[in-house]
Amino acid sequence: MPPESLPAFQQALVAWFQSAQRNLPWRRAYDPYQVWISEIMLQQTQVKTVLPYYERWMRRLPDLQQLAEVEESELMKLWEGLGYYSRARNLKRAAQQVCAEHGGELPRNVAELKQLPGIGPYTAGAIASIAYNQDAPIVDGNVLRVLCRLEALDAPPDTPALQKQLWQLAQEWIPSGQARWFNQGLMELGATVCLPRNPECLLCPVRAHCQALAQGRVSELPRPKARKAPTEVNKAVAVIRWGEALLIRQRREPGLMQGLWELPTVECPQNQPLPGLLEAWLHQELGTSAAPGALLQQATHRYTTFKATLHCFNVSLKPLPLPEHWTPVRQSNVAQYAFPTVYRKLIIQFFKKLLEDDPFLK
Ligand code: SF4
Fold first, then answer.
1. For residues 126 and 170, what is the distance between their CA atoms, to the nearest angstrom?
2. Which atom of ligand 1 lies nearest, measured to the CA of 204?
3. Does the predicted TM-score (pTM) go above 0.85?
4. What's the average model confidence in pLDDT over 17-36?
């Protein structure tokens, strides 16, 4: 953008944001804690999905001190269904660190913010600029799209050279002292007008400055990312009836789902017989033999980098003492536990089936 056009561009974007912004709860007070929580929830997740989670979170954990002290099980329950559960754990760890090292107040600058768990360059820039109105840049997916189109930047989005150029532009274009409005203007434009498909260029407040529009290249920019085929993962799942309940197990293995509850599950290497692996794993967990019976259900679930297929086998088990990370759950208690979404759906289905098959349980 020619330097002489920059002030008009900045002014058009800021004025548009101030009149057209969506009314969102974290934009009312610009409280740093609220901005931080909203930014973490909004990673990979749409605003309409986040809203009820955000409201519930703020009712239960209205400030950073309460987050620092919340029980892990309640934290997981508050996050249940949002996915990427490490985000919630990092929030709590960061809150504890802020209480210990910063007197309970989120730092104001990007360098200190980036020292906190779960806060990378984007989130640090968002907190510094949106909550504290510091002249700090942010580049997320929406900003990337807007900048690539405004400047007609034609390079694959994940190349380091383009990323560096975008962060530089995002820094240089901030009108001093107005980062809160300017940065949110770029994000809001990407979320509501400069859409990935069919952007509404006629309604765009900065169309006069857009190189992609001038060159007739809006639909080809930004260039799509090269997509890898997701890795396929097979899991064998034990559906174990325990009186009127089903057995569930809390995941102890490090990873995305650690701490969540699920139907007892073992991941299986490709081309291995699932029932045999499940039987061996159950023996290791419970110290007793239980041969898997009929395959009851298959379900697939896509994560960002892999696709999991869950093969659910009926397993009969004689009463025995359970390890502490195993427990029976009755239909009326399902809501007390935090499950990954795919397991919650399966458990609801299995209880429905149990009730159909066994009127005694009704
Ligand atoms: Fe995006 Fe169209 Fe505006 Fe250019 S004119 S920034 S492509 S909405």
1. 12
2. 3
3. no
4. 97
